[in-house]
Every structure is written in structure tokens, then in C-alpha cells.
Protein: Nuclear factor 7, brain
Amino acid sequence: MAERALFKKILSCHVCSETFRDPVSLSCNHSFCSSCLQKFWERTKNKNCPICKRKSSKDDPDVNFNLKELADSFAGRQKTGSFERQKAEKKLTVMCSKHEEEPKLFCVDEQRAVCPVCDFSLHQSHKVVPVEEAVSDLKEQLKSDLKSLQDKRNKYKQVEETYNDVIQHSKKQLLSTERQIRAEFNKLQQFLKEEEESRLAALREEEEQKGRTISREMKMIEEQISSLSDSISAVEEELQKHSVPFLSSYKDTQSRARAQSSVSDPQLVSGALIDVAKHLGNLSFRVWEKMKEKVHFSPLILDPNTANCWLYLSHDLTSVRCGDTKQQLPDNPERNTKYATVFGSEGFSSGKHSWEVEVGDHPRWNVGLVKESADRRGERFASSKCGVWCLLHHSGKYTNGADQTVTLKKSLQRIRVQLDYDRGEVSFYDPKDMTHIYTYRDTFTEKLFPYFTVVKAGDATTSDIKICQTDI
Structure:
């Protein structure tokens, strides 16, 4: 017995007081269970030996296999086969080593089973319950922990699925956006190509026109030169005659020569050269000015990543309608899932801004502004208390966010929304005659985004809600 007690002392871990499991030896020659040592280091936040406090030279010491064999042999953990090993471990862990019987009590304070004969006196001040009761309570706790883990895993799986949806949708967005970018640039390139050809044609036309003018002038010059040459030859021939013949014919020659000499001298036609300045001067600017007539500008762009699954946006992201089919879109954090709403792509946190929205004959809509932190997934009333400042139309009636009727003399086809962030004002006007409709006055503390809600009324075919081309 004394020999066994000595072996037990030598083969026991100083931290857990149990026979070594996967023992590791430090450079100071003290040994501990590998897991016990790591837990001790995590708790003390250093790498010192639990006995002598000497700093370990290794962060992760290797298992001492010789000591492990001795400890396993002493504790009956020999590798004798699965059944014998499980039986030995069960005997070691649940049997009292002195009385060879299963403990009937469980110490709640120390969280371990105790023998009612040899251990009970040590736990009189502790909360001790029957093992069956403790097992039942602990299993319930473990079941609760299991459910929490399963719920947590389900949440992670849900996020994983959403990320997969985001990846797939991003690929579709990439292809669609690439196609639209190429189409837009093809239009611009076609316009530039046509403009280039037009400019070159104008250049060639001017060159041909001025070439014809010069050719005409050259022909007249050639005719004058030929006529003058003939007169010169006649005078020279006359000068070769003798006195009597000369006297009889010189007058006609002289009259002809004097008539041609009296003709005005030839003048170069001005503007014969190509007007290079006209063709090259401010060329890029003039092409750009012409291009502005061909391109469309919108003061606001809708953000498709915020659009509800029932909403369909135009290719240029300036109009929205409520469709008949729910789209398969990723459940990203920016998306409005509760209501048929879409936000503008850019928010405002200062300054004055305005834009117009064409609502036409659409039966149900909300138009205005919303704060960035507004709930996009739960209940969100169209009121300033929920961070929404808007004008609503439903059943032929116009209301504000407080559900107060706004009286108008005629139905609206367009709405001008004006934001003065610094003064805390959101106003609505009829842009046709700038009739004031309603103004909110509030204090803004975060970024505001343009806000559009479109609801389809029954089976009626309705027009899109469009952002109009106007200055912002």
C-alpha cells in the first residue's frame, strides 16, 4: 500500500491532483497534465511553472511518453481494447476507490460526485443533492445549451445561405451592369463616330467648295493670260513691219493693246484657304455641348440593393414599379423586406436639395425622405416618429405622416421634394405652379435618403414612379 501511495504521489498532476493524462515535462523537470497546464497558463496569463514559477522555455511542451505509459499503466488505462478501456475508465471515474461503489450524492458547489461514506463530511457546508437529481438538472441545462448551439448554428447557416445568394446575385449584377455599361459606351462611341464623320465631311465639303472657287478664278486668269499673250505677239509682230505697212496697220494693234492694258489688275480671292479655326476651335467643347442634348441626366438614382423583392427598377435606375412576381433577391442588410420601398443611392447630411417625381395616375404611393437607421425589416410607419418625412396618396386622398388629410384643388401629376437639412425642413410642392402642399419641420441628426414606396392596387395596370430630369 505504501508503494502504491508513493507511485500515486509521483504520478499525480499538481494542478488537478489526478493521475497524469498526456503528461508534459517542463525544463524545470516538473510535470503536469497537458490540458491542466494550458488552462493554468490561460488563467494566469503567463507561461510560468505552477510549482516553482520558473518561466517555461516552450509555449507548447511535447508529451512525455515514458511518463504517460507509467501513468496509464498505474491508472489501469492500458491499451487493452475498447471494452476493457471503457470499463476501466468507468470504474476510475464513477466508483469510489475505497468502497468500490457508485457515489449517490453530487456536490453542486464543487460540481463533482462524492462518496457518502468517506467524502460527505468534507461537504457538509456545501449544497449536496442526489446524483439522479443532479444528472436530471445538468441534462436539462445541457439540453438548453444544445438548443442554443443549434440555434446559433442555424443562424450561421442562414447567414451562409445569404452570402451564397449574395455571391450569385453579385455575378448576375456584374454581367447585367457590364452589359449596360458597354451599351451606354457604344451609344457614346456611335455618337462620337457619327460626329467625327460629320466634322470630316464638313471639312471636305469646304475644301471642295473653295477648290471650285479657285478653279474658277484660275480659269479666268488663264483666259486673260492667253488673251494678253495674243496681244503681245500682235504688238511684237507689228513692230517688225517697215514704215509704210506699219503706218497702215498700227492703229488697230495699238487700240487692242491699250484696251487690254486698261483692264484692272487681277486680285486674289480672300478666304481661299480652309477655315481651320472653325473646324478645330473648341472642338471637344462643342461636341460635348451637342452630346448633352443626347444624354439623360437624373438628379437622383435609385439603389437596387435597397429595393423590395416586389419592386422592379428601370435599367437607368430612375423609375420603379410594383410587379406581379416576387423576385429572388438576396436578403442583404440594406434591403427593405417589410414594405414595397426603395431608397435613393445617395443620402444628404447638410445643405439644400430638391428633385421632382412623376407620379402620374398611380393610385398608391409614398414619396419623401427617410433616415438612414430606419427599420427596413420590421414595422415602420410613414411618420416622422419612425424617421420618415413623406407625402402619401391612397384612394384618391393625400395625407401627411401624421395621417392628416392634405387638401388640394387638383390631383398631382408631379411632386417637387425640397430638403433644407440645416433648417430641418422637408417641403412638397406642385412644380407646375409651385403651389405649396406641406412642410415638415424637425431636427435631423443623421443622413437622410430619398424614399419611394409603390403599392399595386388590385389588378390595375399602373404607371411607373419616375424621377424627373431637373436640377437638384
User: Anything to note?
Assistant: Residues 1-75 form a domain with the Herpes Virus-1 fold (CATH 3.30.40.10). The chain has a mean pLDDT of 86. DSSP finds eight helices and 17 strands in the chain. The chain has three domains: 1-75, 187-293, 302-467.
